[in-house]
Amino acid sequence: MVAEGLVTRFHGGFCYVMVNGVVKACLPRGRLAAGGLLVGDRVKVRVARECVVEEVLPRRTELLRPPVANVELAVLVFSLRDPEPNFKLLDRLLVASRAAAIEAVICFNKLDLMEGAFPEELNVYHAVGYQVLLTSALTGEGVAGLRAVLTGKISVFAGPSGSGKSSLLNAIEPSLHLKTGEISRKTRRGRHTTRLVELLPLPGGGFVADTPGFAQLDLPDIPAARLASSFPEIAAAGVECRFNDCLHLREPDCAVQRAVAEGVVAPFRYRHYVNFLQEIRDRERRSWS
């Protein structure tokens, strides 16, 4: 019998596939065994004495880091305190999500540690059109709203170690019993607790991937001219530039530079754009040499 299923994890040489609500340990056939499968792949399996993955169905989306296929929603988790939020990494993740055609939601966790005013950057992300959630895995505040966002979708949690991704997933569904860690007193960074990507079913419908945390991320392989489209406020302001191919650096009559000067585009977001643009252009030059 051949049936369709969803790859949920890999372990011990087996590919675990959910078929009709039941997870089966399968062996990938032929070339698929050499790395041709990702968590999140929809596959055809032959169910017999031995379950075998025969074919990978076309992917709608694909992320390389974390390596997950068919993701519909990326939940980018950063802590409000301990450690402090890394907005440059957040913007990298937003660029990566846009390049992969995946909707992104920003979640700032550890609301219970907040004292005084919130970082001004939070208002910037909300103003440019991103959904921004505030949560506390410890107290449960905001968890219901996050759970509602995940319902019915294949989602991925991504962000630096120590931001509380696994703790949030445990708060959403306590039966997951995911391992969590503490912040290193020396580095003020989180210790890695998630080692492998795994797709976890949610009781309300949908799946979520718990993924290893990380502190750095390479920019996606996109042309320099396309980077501005990953910054909604820069793309909107750029419509008024004199030149259609304006990169918003030192070109005359650049509407984006004017918007930065007038406070319409947040300076920190523009700085990140310029930094990323330089990285992409450097990479392009290396590829030409």
List keywords for this structure.
single chain, 289 residues, alpha/beta, OB fold (Dihydrolipoamide Acetyltransferase, E2P), Rossmann fold, Ribonucleotide Reductase Protein R1, domain 1, 3 domains, six-stranded mixed sheet, five-stranded mixed β-barrel, 7 helices, 13 strands, 25% helix, globular
Structure description:
The relative contact order is 0.12. By secondary structure, the protein is α/β, with parallel strands linked by helices. The protein folds into three domains: 2-56, Beta Barrel (OB fold (Dihydrolipoamide Acetyltransferase, E2P)); 62-210, Rossmann fold; 224-288, Ribonucleotide Reductase Protein R1, domain 1 (Orthogonal Bundle). It contains seven helices and 13 strands. A hairpin with a 5-residue loop joins strand 12 and strand 13. It is globular.
Kindly name the structural category. Answer: alpha/beta
Low-confidence stretches: 181-195
- Kindly provide the radius of gyration, computed on alpha-carbon positions and rounded to a whole number of angstroms: 21 Å
The CATH architecture of the largest domain is 3-Layer(aba) Sandwich
Organism: Ammonifex degensii
Main location: cytoplasm
Subunit structure: Monomer. Associates with 30S ribosomal subunit, binds 16S rRNA.
Binding site for GTP: 109-112, 159-167
